[in-house]
Write a structure and sequence with these properties.
By secondary structure, the protein is an alpha+beta fold. It has helices at residues 2-27, 47-56; strands at residues 38-40, 61-67, 73-78, 84-89, 95-98. It folds into two domains: 1-33; 38-98.
Length: 99
């Protein structure tokens, strides 16, 4: 009987942890879905930010740009070898990420 009670207690704890993890995943960190990036025209990118992108990825022909909810611009284009490249530039000109 003692072993059964120990097993049952452990099982109850594990079940609670699994339930708690499922709720956390379902709700997410903020409880709200993330808003999708807004597609802009490449002509809408300020020249200073395009210059940052060209320095970060020389030789890439940029053709798409997306504005994230944070204001960061994700500027995409193709390299001469056909590979799609992107650079994320903050409004202050700081490069956030290069892919």
């Amino acid at each position: 009987m003692k072993h059964f009670l120990e097993y049952r207690e452990m099982h109850d704890k594990n079940g609670f942890v699994i339930w708690l993890a499922a709720v956390a995943v379902a709700v997410g960190c903020s409880g709200q879905p993330a808003s999708p990036p807004e597609e802009l025209s490449i002509a809408d990118v300020p020249p200073s930010l395009m210059e940052v992108a060209r320095k970060a990825l020389p030789g890439v022909e940029f053709d798409r740009v997306y504005r994230k909810p944070s204001g960061t611009l994700e500027i995409r284009g193709k390299a001469k070898n056909g590979k799609i490249r992107e650079v994320e530039v903050r409004p202050d000109g700081t490069v956030e990420e290069i892919e």
